[in-house]
UniProtKB/TrEMBL annotation, chain A:
This is TIGR03960 family B12-binding radical SAM protein. It comes from the Bacteria. It comes from Adlercreutzia faecimuris. Residues 627-651 are annotated as: Disordered. Residues 258-495 form the Radical SAM core domain. InterPro entries: CHP03960_rSAM, Elp3/MiaA/NifB-like_rSAM, Radical_SAM_N2, rSAM, rSAM_horseshoe, rSAM_sf.
TrEMBL record, chain B:
InterPro entries: DUF2344. It comes from Adlercreutzia faecimuris. NCBIfam families: sam_1_link_chp. This is TIGR03936 family radical SAM-associated protein. Residues 8-145 form the DUF2344 domain.
Length: 651, 215
């Protein structure tokens, strides 16, 4: 059935809202309306500016459109002013390409990019007029699929989704849609479709599992009990096995209005095996798969020509770890010579080589460099397996400031397991000594412009990591430790920024909560919580009152530390990295023992490769630069990936 | 600024359809990207952050379209205008389509001030019998309210079409500033009784001139 076109109703509203460009569609590279094809609406649960450049949106829209008989469109959450106006006017959430009601799509997919997007998921469903809970949906409502990083602990979202894909969606999503279409064509009822989806590898259908009590769960080894035979007891993560060989050029929509990561993004590698113990990304994208230099350079050239972007980012968790990165950057520089194109390379490397790579693409304009030592003392860096020494950091600082950078930001976490006040003072000491090094590397007349920033985030225990059993410190304790840090920093040129511990607290609950957390999310949303990741929108009272209303003790979820034998609420979801390995890593942390990066040497037995049947796939052998500890380094994940600001590519 | 070794190409384009809702900055970015997609040999500025040598004509507000807008692009070598046009058309969305290309003299006035006189047409959602014009329009500039005398900017009359469905008028940009066409139209509409007041269906700049020549 052709979908309704809401444009005639939307058009007059656009004069009354901010930045209408985000609701227009018609961007360069945007696809066609779904028309009569089996339709999939890919939703990012935040505004266009945040979601348009999102990798999952790009990849899945492309993958679905490439499949026979399937068509994908995009949708984003309207900004608060537009959402309010739409409710006033009775206009439902619409897709971009066809400006069709999201509720008219056959299947709606919502990605779960971070822990603070939960209330936005409900905002999406409500604006779309789709019942919030899967249990309340009628036969002709869309099937609502979830996926993304937060699917690794799907429980706080479970009741809102018909099915959740665990892991990479390149193959899983088109496969799932084709199955739904087949069953819909055959007239299968919703319940039968969901049962069939549970048989697709990597697919979790929450309604087919009973939530056990704590005692039952500890006894059974899992909280989720299949309610009928044939439903898998454990769901294993999907991996796109062909990633390394697949074309690095992906058709890209070029937005009119400015968005985050508004540039050509070429994914150069997937996965990171540095093995940082707090990092979910470092566990969930294993094994490591690199695309070849030829593939990447061809994609950059084609991508720049087809999109017209003046900036390209070679994306991954840590692109300077690519075995051919020096060759890639030299060739990319050659390809964009004289065209005013900027190149950026996210990096987790904390060594002179990483700086050298940043210098290669920085040109004359040097903004700031960021490094993430994560902890202030060697003891604590060993605990978290951040395999970086002070000498590595100072080597990187020397190289950066000698090469012309004048600003540097150091990222740390506070509240890491085993942290003491000495570790906090260690942050101040490290930052000040780094500042001294930076000054010494700079000509005397320029020393006044040297700046060292310290940015501290609160440790959030993440599901599927060695620190999943560790509780978060309370917001009050965060403030005490931040106070101690601030008092310990004596230099004026070193300034300290920190994240709001109240949002980190909600993140921790969402990260570690079981199915009961879903009621809390819904109650918070009903009290007006939405856009929780936006400081100006975060409504602490809504969350607190919601907890009282549903009888949830969020402190108990966020802050309690468990023994590594305790069965966590996501035990039925497997990333391939075994719980045994996570527990072993937790014990090594306690003993201050580190674990090396398997892409530079021997397998360390995490379990991902044998379980998933995929191996590390490197474009060339990875060789440790002489004396660089970064070869054993670790990382936290994309949002905080140390990204040197790119400069212009110049001749 | 004027580098005699460069070629100054004037590109006429339209800002139409739903893309009339783009801001000046959004249009500028989109045009730069179209130039890059066209693969033209554009010049790049020297300095810390090199960028494309391109200059845009007088800005249009969000929601105002243009039938003949233009920008000047500096090329490092001569490419036949017809070839430039063909390449630009292949890289442009329909609603920001390139219409004409021609080289202009380096000595010609800068793009932003080349054509101070703009003619607009506003299409209305319903016909009106007469078109009242206020003496002054209140605008907000740098967070301060300011009264602009309409006579100072309006060149000639505001002409209501015979069918009452559209109005044509010309505004002159002054070195001290200009009166936004959307603000003027809204001020006119505000003078009508609310019950019979139509809305703007579209507001479009249909011509730009310097008093003697028209773009
Ligand atoms: S199984 Fe071994 S080689 Fe594969 S990711 Fe884990 S540690 Fe590395």
């Amino acid at each position: 059935m052709p979908q309704t076109n809401l444009w005639p109703r939307l058009r007059p509203l656009l004069a009354r809202v901010e930045r209408p460009a985000r609701y227009l569609d018609h961007e360069w590279g945007a696809g066609a309306p779904a028309g009569d094809a089996f339709s999939f609406c890919m939703v990012y649960p935040d505004t266009y500016e945040l979601g348009q450049a999102n990798q999952a949106v790009r990849i899945l829209v492309n993958a679905v459109n490439a499949a026979d008989g399937l068509a994908a469109e995009r949708a984003f959450l309207p900004a608060a002013d537009m959402a309010d106006l739409m409710r006033e006017e009775g206009l439902p959430l619409f897709s971009l390409e066809g400006c069709a009601p999201v509720g008219e799509f056959d299947v709606v997919g919502i990605t779960l990019p971070h822990e603070l997007a939960a209330t936005n998921v409900l905002e999406v469903l409500d604006l779309a007029g789709i019942p919030l809970r899967a249990a309340d949906r009628a036969e002709d409502d869309p099937i609502v699929l979830g996926g993304g990083p937060c699917a690794l602990n799907p429980e706080p979202y479970a009741p809102f989704f018909d099915a959740i894909t665990i892991g990479e969606g390149e193959e899983a999503t088109p496969e799932t849609l084709a199955r739904i279409r087949e069953l819909r064509d055959a007239g299968a009822p919703r319940a039968a479709i969901l049962r069939a989806l549970a048989a697709i590898p990597g697919t979790y259908v929450p309604s087919l599992y009973r939530w056990r009590t704590e005692a039952e769960a500890q006894e059974a080894g899992s909280w989720a009990e299949p309610i009928e035979p044939g439903v898998p007891a454990a769901i294993e993560r999907r991996v796109f096995e062909g990633f390394a060989r697949s074309d690095a050029w992906e058709p890209t929509v070029v937005p009119y209005t400015e968005v985050v990561h508004d540039r050509l993004n070429v994914e150069v590698l997937r996965g990171c095996a540095r093995g940082c113990r707090f990092c979910q990304a470092g566990m969930m994208y294993r094994p490591v798969r690199e695309r070849s230099a030829d593939n990447i350079v061809a994609a950059v050239e084609r991508g720049l020509a087809e999109t017209g972007y003046d900036e390209v980012s070679l994306t991954s968790l840590s692109s300077t770890d690519h075995s051919q990165i020096a060759e890639i950057l030299a060739r990319v520089n050659g390809a964009c010579d004289g065209r005013g194109i900027r190149v950026s390379v996210p990096s987790q490397r904390l060594d002179a080589f990483g700086v050298e790579m940043a210098r290669l693409v920085a040109g004359q304009k040097k903004g700031g460099l960021t490094f993430a030592p994560e902890a202030g003392t060697q003891r604590l860096r060993d605990v978290i397996n951040k395999n970086v020494t002070e000498d590595d950091l100072f080597g990187a600082i020397d190289a950066a400031f000698a090469a012309g950078w004048r600003r540097c930001k150091l990222y740390f976490m506070i509240g890491l397991p085993t942290e003491t006040d000495d570790d906090i003072k260690g942050i101040a000491s490290l930052a000040q000594r780094a500042y001294d090094r930076a000054k010494a590397a700079v000509p005397p007349d320029q020393r006044g412009s040297v700046r060292m920033g310290v940015s501290v985030a609160v440790f959030v225990p993440k599901a599927q990591t060695p620190f999943q059993w560790d509780g978060q410190i309370s917001p009050d304790e965060v403030l005490r430790r931040v106070g101690l840090l601030k008092r310990s920093v004596k230099y004026k040129a070193v300034d300290v920024h920190y994240h709001d511990p109240k949002t980190s607290f909600v993140e921790a609950v969402m990260s570690r909560g079981g199915r009961e957390a879903a009621d809390w999310v819904e109650a918070a949303w009903r009290r007006g919580a939405r856009f929780d990741a936006w400081t100006e929108h975060f409504d602490e009272d809504a969350w607190r009152e919601a907890a009282t209303e549903v009888g949830l003790e969020p402190e108990a979820i966020a802050q309690v530390t468990r023994e590594p034998g305790y069965v966590m609420p996501w035990a039925h979801v497997s990333t391939g990295v075994s719980t045994r390995f996570l527990a072993l890593e937790r014990r090594r942390a306690a003993a201050g023992e580190t674990t090396p990066d398997c892409t530079f040497g021997a397998c360390t037995g995490c379990g991902a490769c044998p379980t998933l049947g995929v191996d590390n796939e490197l474009a060339a052998p990875r060789v440790a630069p002489a004396g660089a500890g970064a070869t054993r380094g670790a990382d936290e994940g994309a949002p905080r990936a140390g990204a040197p600001e790119g400069g212009a590519c110049h001749g | 600024m004027a580098d005699p070794s460069l070629f100054r190409l004037r590109v006429v384009f339209r800002k139409a359809g739903r893309l009339a809702l783009l801001s000046h900055l959004e249009v500028a970015r989109a045009l730069e990207r179209a130039v890059r997609r066209a693969g033209l040999p554009f010049a790049v500025s020297q300095g810390f952050s090199p960028h494309m040598r391109i200059a845009f004509g007088a800005a249009l507000p969000v929601g105002v379209g243009g039938e003949r807008e233009f920008y000047d692009l500096f090329l490092t070598r001569y490419v036949a205008p017809a070839k430039c046009l063909e390449a630009l058309r292949a890289g442009s969305p329909d609603d920001l389509m390139a219409l004409e290309c021609a080289y202009v003299e380096h000595a010609a006035p800068a793009a932003s001030v080349a054509y101070p006189l703009s003619t607009y047409r506003v299409d209305l959602t319903a016909p009106v019998g007469e078109w009242p014009v206020p003496d002054a329009v209140t605008v907000v500039r740098k967070k301060k309210e300011k009264e602009l005398a309409v006579a100072e900017y309006l060149a000639g009359e505001m002409l209501l079409a015979d069918d009452g469905r559209s109005v044509m008028f010309a505004l002159e940009a002054k070195p001290t500033g200009s009166l936004r066409p959307d603000k003027l139209v809204d001020a006119c509409l505000a003078l009508m009784p609310e019950k019979s007041r139509p809305q703007r269906a579209a507001l479009t700049r249909i011509a730009q001139s310097d008093g003697t020549t028209t773009l």
